[in-house]
From TrEMBL, chain A:
One of its GO terms (cellular component) is plasma membrane. One of its GO terms (biological process) is phosphate ion transmembrane transport. The chain crosses the membrane at residues 20-41, 73-95, 107-134, 140-159, 191-212, 259-286. This is Phosphate transport system permease protein PstA. It comes from Anaerocolumna xylanovorans DSM 12503.
From TrEMBL, chain B:
The keyword Disulfide bond does not apply. GO terms for biological process: phosphate ion transport. Belongs to the binding-protein-dependent transport system permease family. CysTW subfamily. The chain crosses the membrane at residues 12-37, 66-96, 108-136, 148-171, 191-217, 261-284. It comes from Anaerocolumna xylanovorans DSM 12503. Residues 72-280 form the ABC transmembrane type-1 domain. Pfam families: BPD_transp_1 (PF00528). It comes from the Bacteria. Part of the binding-protein-dependent transport system for phosphate; probably responsible for the translocation of the substrate across the membrane. This is Phosphate transport system permease protein. It is found in: Cell membrane. Keywords: Cell membrane, Membrane, Phosphate transport, Transmembrane, Transmembrane helix, Transport. GO terms for cellular component: plasma membrane.
Length: 293, 292
């Protein structure tokens, strides 16, 4: 039959193409799994309460990471305080108030550019602007300078994700509220924001992930210091290395036993994993909820 | 009275969110102006030609030499090879996830690969130090494995998730009618993917490539840890210094003059990213026109 000769002629090529595609995909997946498994297996045994709760001390020969955890959290929180209102406000403007025109194109282009600027350029700008020009904190870096630099970095993520969530809210909700005579502000407060809340939470979680893994922008804005902050309020103007920056220093300059970078990498991987997973789960639930609507 | 108050609140709120939205524009302008004001005079002092085309960088010399040609060429060299290898891999993976695999399996693999995007740069650098650098040293019998080659390997892994996810989106956005028409003519799926779907998704894939280029040029800490960091013209098995790592290396101990030049390097990076973004926009628009 004509059909069988056709099949015979084409099949080897088809199999080869499929084999190639699947082999490459399997290799990439294996690589990801290997990276994660390696870091967790190598680092996990060293993670204990002492490691998480103590500061590194040459005298006591302890290598805790408590100050780095505090610094990372400090920068995350401080940066969120600024970036959440800014990001959600901008998203509301883009989704609810803006009319197509030059201003809107400028804003969208600016978001695009902000998203593309490399971390190190932000770091450079943060050092020159926040620390040298505005004198925000000590000249060796400060939590506030690091946090403000991170704010610029996460703004695009925050705005885009929130805007997407706002646009997914069923338009009939908005229309129903309008027809009842509700004002725009009232609708935003009582209908849009509550409905888009899971999407906004995802935006915040993704931003946290970005800040936790940031290093180049923080090296010269938040500075390097691994001592335990004495006063959390005054710490805003003091330098301090987060987990990533300290891992970089240990990995390149030494100053710690070999196991310390492994343990820090494992802590970071677990953090990133939790952040990713929770963002995925909430986004998944949100999609389901919206599609039911 | 009440209506007036509501109207007032609404206007105030609108003004506030408008101001917030303007912050993004102001930030970009501020960053641009600041870099030009701080970096411009230093570049002018060195001379634009000597700055961009000068082959020697030695900030400790008297007088210091600030030629960044080696950094520019190194950045493009590494980016070129990164993209050259990462793009074909990404397209194959994108085809597998979006077109060939059952939906459930595709979703799982997509989620696994997206984990790569969340891993901090310093961890990639750390893994590079542990695995790639010693391996490169052994395989090529070098005195040190801190080379351009090691950075390219790290960059390939780092750009994969970005290029995969954007090209998958554009591949999946191709009109299903094309495939149906091909099937009706008796064309095999595998054949149709390469001859019909990929060409139709061309603009979106170009956008993915540009995004990968942006990531590779801008990556700092990971390559800082594996590139060896010596300012010289690039070669695969030699230590190199990139635009990004040049800034990190000398920032902490830079003199006033050197600091200005480093900001000048940041300005060069900023301009490159601006150009890449503009081209990216062009392709996104084109992709939208094709698929929409």
């Amino acid at each position: 039959m004509a059909n069988t000769t056709y099949e015979k002629r084409i099949r080897p090529g088809v199999i080869a193409v499929r084999a190639l595609i699947y082999t490459v995909t399997a290799a990439v997946v294996a690589l990801v799994v290997a990276i994660i498994a390696f870091l967790i297996v190598k680092g996990l045994p060293y993670i204990n309460w002492e490691f998480l709760s103590k500061a590194p001390s040459r005298l006591d020969e302890t290598y805790g990471i408590a100050p780095m955890i505090i610094n990372t959290l400090y920068i995350v929180l401080l940066s969120l305080i600024v970036s959440i209102p800014l990001g959600i406000g901008t998203a509301l403007y883009l989704a609810e108030y803006s009319k197509p025109g030059k201003v809107i194109s400028a804003i969208r282009f600016a978001i695009e550019i902000l998203a593309g600027i490399p971390s190190i350029v932000y770091g450079l700008f943060g050092l020159a602007f926040f620390i040298n020009a505005l004198k925000a904190g000590s000249s060796g870096g400060s939590m506030i300078a690091g946090a403000l630099t991170c704010t610029l970095i996460v703004l695009p993520t925050m705005i885009r994700t929130t805007e997407e969530a706002l646009l997914q809210v069923n338009p009939s909700y908005r229309e129903a509220a309008f027809s009842l005579g509700a004002s725009k502000l009232h609708i935003i407060r009582t209908v849009l924001l509550p409905c888009a809340l899971p999407g906004i939470v995802v935006a915040i979680i993704l931003s946290i992930g970005r800040i936790v893994s940031e290093s180049a922008a923080l090296l010269y804005t938040a500075g390097v210091d691994y001592t335990m902050p004495a006063n959390l309020v005054k710490h805003v103007a003091e330098p301090g290395a987060g987990l990533t920056v300290q891992l970089y220093l240990y990995a390149t300059e030494g100053g710690s036993p070999d196991w310390v970078p492994y343990a820090m990498a494992a802590v970071l991987m677990i953090l990133v994993f939790i952040i990713n997973l929770s963002a995925n789960i909430i986004a998944g639930l949100f999609k389901k909820k919206v599609s039911i609507n | 009275m009440k209506t007036q108050k509501v109207y007032l609140y609404n206007s105030i709120f609108k003004a506030i969110v408008f101001f917030f939205a303007l912050v993004t524009v102001l930030s970009v302008i501020l960053i641009g102006v600041f870099m030009i004001v701080n970096g411009g005079p230093s570049i002018a002092k060195v001379g634009l030609k000597d700055f961009l085309l000068g082959k020697v960088w030695n900030s400790a010399n008297e007088p210091p030499q600030y030629g960044i040609l080696a950094f520019i060429v190194s950045s493009f060299y590494s980016t070129f090879f990164t993209v050259l290898i990462a793009v074909p891999i990404s397209i194959l993976v994108a085809l597998a996830i979006g077109q060939l695999m059952p939906k459930g399996l595709g979703t799982v693999i997509r989620a696994i690969i997206s984990l790569l995007a969340g891993i901090p740069s310093v961890i990639y650098g750390f893994l590079g130090i542990i695995f790639i650098v010693p391996l490169v040293q052994k395989v090529f019998n070098l005195s040190s494995g801190l080379t351009m080659f090691s950075s390219v390997i790290v960059l390939i892994v780092m750009t994969l998730p970005t290029i995969i996810s954007v090209s998958e989106t554009s591949i999946n956005a191709v009109d299903k009618g094309y495939m149906d028409a091909a099937f009706a003519l008796g064309v095999r799926k595998e054949y149709a993917l390469f001859t019909i779907v990929l060409p139709a998704a061309k603009s979106g894939i170009m956008a993915a490539v540009l995004l990968g280029v942006g990531r590779a040029i801008g990556e700092t800490m990971a390559v800082m840890m594996v590139a060896g960091n010596i300012p010289q013209m690039p070669s695969m098995l030699k230590p190199v210094r990139f635009l990004t790592t040049a800034i990190v290396t000398e920032m902490s101990y830079a003199t006033e003059q050197t600091r200005g030049v480093l900001i000048g390097i940041g300005l060069v990076l900023f301009v490159f990213i601006f150009i890449i973004n503009s081209i990216f926009h062009f392709f996104i628009k084109k992709a939208g026109a094709v698929n929409g």
